[in-house]
Amino acid sequence: MYPDHMQESLRKVEQTRPERLRLAKSGKDICARMLEEESNGLLYKFHPDYKDDARRVIRIGPNKGEKLTTEVADLLESYARINPEQFNLKQPDYETDVLVVGAGSAGFAAALLAAQNGARVILDTKLRVGDSNSMMAQGGIQAAVAPDDSPPIHYLDAIGGGHFDNKPELVEALVKEGPDAIQWLSDLGVMFDRNPDGTMVQKPGGGTSRKRMHSARDYTGAAICRTLRDEVLNHPDQISILEHQPAVELVMDEAGRVAGAVLYHLENREYFMVKAKATILATGGFGRLHIRNYETTNHYGATADGLVMAYRVGANLLFMDSVQYHPTGAVYPEQIVGFLCTEKLRSLGAQPLNKHGEIFVHPLEPRDVEASSFIRECLEKGNGIRTEMGRQGVWLDTPLIDAINGENTIIQNLPAMYRQFKRFNIDITTEPMLVYPTLHYQNGGVEINNRCETRVPGLYVAGEASGGVHGRNRLMGNSQLDIIVFGRRAGLHAADYALKTKLEKLSLQHVYDYNKEVKQLNVKPGKIAPMVLPDYIPEAVKQRQFSTHYEGTLRM
Amino acid sequence: MEKGIKTVKVYILGEGFDVPAASTILAAMEYAGFQLTHGVGCREGFCGACATIYREKGDYKLQAGLACQTVVSDGMNIATIPFVPAEKPVYDITKLTPDVATFKELYPVIFRCVACNTCTKACPQDIEVMDYIQALIQGNIERSADLSFDCIRCGLCALRCPAEIVQYNAAILARRLYGRYLMKKSPHLAKRVEEIKQGVYDQEFETLKTMDKDRLREKYYSREIKVK
Fold first, then answer.
1. Nearest in space to A161 (alpha carbons), one of A220, A218, A205
2. How far is B206 from chain A (nearest CA, A)?
3. Can you give the pTM of this predicted structure?
4. Which chain B residues are within 8 Å of A176, Cβ to Cβ?
5. Angle between helices B202-210 and A168-176 (to 10 degrees)
6. Beta strand residue intervals within chain B, DSSP E
7. B7-80: what CATH class?
8. Residue A396's closest CA among A345, A348, A438?
9. Residue B1 predicted with pLDDT over 80
10. What domains does chain A contain, in order, with CATH numbers?
11. Looking at beta carbons, which residues of chain A come within 8 Å of B91?
12. What ipTM score was computed for the predicted complex, to two decimals?
């Protein structure tokens, strides 16, 4: 139930619905798509990345002198969490061929492929194995499977969506392996939605020129991630799992190669050292940095730890000046503000409307364009709908979904969305959702090649932590594909490399060196990274915590 | 406490705290000063990390829910479950058969189901848990996979089950068996995988990869869009 002051606007939505439904069913475009000039102007004026203080020059490390997202630059200009003097480099606590950091779908795919190629694997994770953004993806995974589609068409969509900045070799790998990724996952038992004849159900996504979104209801990420987790747990002899002990620093050897990581146990606060011939970072993104104070769709652990660790050993970053805001985050009720409302809602026909019940943008523009148009509608045109908490949003007219696709489409295809709103007494089969852009995805990351190698030997990166695949704007369904394709590639190539590699003496010299440089910037002591977890403890509570202290965001 | 915010008293692990009335259990715990490292994950109802047992004021019943999805009430008594140490047998999915024999071997415990429906009542996803276990007992893998599809593996079913069944682990096996062996195969998928393997698109990729941005831009904005 929406509050009284929204009822008038809701009536307008209902009044305009029959005509919008007629248009949607007519097969014509319900709203013209934007041309390049118009969308560029919109992005420049309204996308949060283009605000004056959204970016600043980083003063340290491989990207020194470049403009990065301000919060990212702040994080990178921080001291190490560990004191390298305290570690005995001659006695690592664990030894393995391949260390995988991060247990979402990219980490799982990497661990499985590394094990399959003969490596002993340690899979290390911050929280529970499988707790990740991968698990939360709803809408789908792209792959050019349909007869009227092809991998080159997928390539063009991805690279256009990314504003032509994507690394071609990475996009090629992504789209070329799409169908094989779907095949692999199906063979492992992921239940992708099928038509009665066995062909895949395929829907469009923002910026796709064909219907190539494969889904598993609206639990697509969960269906994939839980299947991969089950498979990982079926290989205990080759894959050892360490939970609740995030990696906080990489270890190198004296030949300048990455040779494992230092882990911090969140329960008993011990540190452990893993010696590994190859290390794969599959640590995900940065939503919990709450860039520009945005709410986020991201998992509790999405704090960009991998970026920090990789940067300190000399790996360079790509496109870390760009942030993806998902157009449709929940704005009401307050308990679910920022939560993801899947793009699949729009794939199935839900339309964004202003307070007058008017459609103001094509529902399936690329995400940055769609999000910017929502912001314009609220902030410049004054056509947003306000909540009691002072937030603004636009309607996403979900009742159209059943009207267009047939009764029970929402219940059968969007059970997560239905459940999410029903818990708070909003029935999305009869009422629209109120939405506004929410911080969603790290478009850039550590630069990799198509073998997932970084420029530092022994260090591999896969998934959201990597940069180059999506340029400066990722399309829906390309991250689920990314984590499978590049997770597998990282596992394969890291195993190959590890089995040929003999490490020299271990070293943490890079930590001393980086700390020294941070100090020269006059960064105040106590500003440390990686963040590990965000801090949501109220200040008033902290003021009474007389005998404890915080290191960064973590209470000691 | 900020002025003007309506609060309620909740009991977290037995200790009383005043928290905003509109909080979820998760937000209430953080408001009270808990920095969570267990019993917290995606915070949006997808990962199942925040299984919670609670009791409402004046009620004797222990209820089950997700901390990130359940709003507090005055006098609520809360205990989060950090971890569920449930059994998961190791198997090779390529060597199993999609039938009841597999469950007799790997999850014989499901046949102890007394049909009490406690698991269903405990499920924060409103899944018909008992029905999917009964379907497995009858060898109906498809029905079990379908009914259990929205499972987020919080483990509350197993924690409440008087017959010691690990429903959610049996369910992932049911879905994997159904997905791998029983779903119809897509003819387009196999064909496309083969085409790619044979290099059908390699030439086109070479052209695309060497195009400068202007030509790519032109090609992109003039591409045919076959979705409305």
1. A205
2. 10
3. 0.97
4. 196, 201, 205
5. 150
6. 7-12, 15-20, 51-55, 63-66, 77-80
7. alpha beta
8. A345
9. no
10. 4-50+325-439 (3.90.700.10), 96-322+443-506 (3.50.50.60)
11. 234
12. 0.97
